[in-house]
Amino acid sequence: MQILLRILMRYSYFLYFCLLLFMSLFILFNNNSYLQSSYFNSSNLLVGRLFEFRSSIINYFFLKEINANILEENKLLKKNLLELKTNSHFLQTYPEFISKDNYEIISATIINNSIFKNDNNFTLDKGTNDGVKVGQGVLGPYGIVGKIHTVSKNFSVGYSLLNSKLMISSFVGKSKIISTSNWLGNDPETLNLLYVPKHFKLLIGDTVFTSSFSATFPQGVPISIIKDIDNKTNSNFLEIKSIPIENFYSLFNVYIINYKLKEEKQSIELN
Fold first, then answer.
1. pLDDT at res. 76
2. Helix 12-30 to helix 2-10 angle, to the nearest 10 degrees?
């Protein structure tokens, strides 16, 4: 104890200087919006670079799995293209799949991803320099991944589908029963389908898609598959649980969706 006191006494001026310096910097940053913004952007860039470096190392050891996922995704895309070209009945049933050039796609890589938190997020290696904006939807090889909520010049962070803050307007199967998809926490493999009245007849195995009510995602993108239906609840709605289409345990490559008519749609809806 005496040795500690001697050391403190010996370096008291230096410690006092450090304390005053820390207090001065704290007051300066706390009352200067420009410095706050500069610090925020710098720290975001540093954290983003660290995530990017870690992701590059992890991806190196999972190259075989990543390549297998890419091959499977290409197989699925080719299959869908063949169906669109050869099946006129399919186009009549789902006219929303006909290309109108209203969507721009930005490819990105997930460099950080949480699954087991109460509200999960992911970090992408693309930012405003690449055309990424707050509010854009993010798709995986098979379905919905999430929605962008924070963007810097080189990186962006999004709410995962496994985030209670993300509510997605949806419909079920060919019946197109309107609903809302949301995650209420706990299980990464279970989504909740909300606001479906009890008089509607749904089946286990039905697919849940994005609806036309959303200005974030194109209509008809798969979200989940129904795995359990409970009609014995005390409310007027069914209690429905579903399995996400996307596998959040092995997500690498994703696609950011820019709906070119989003601002026009939202502007006219507000009037």
1. 65
2. 70
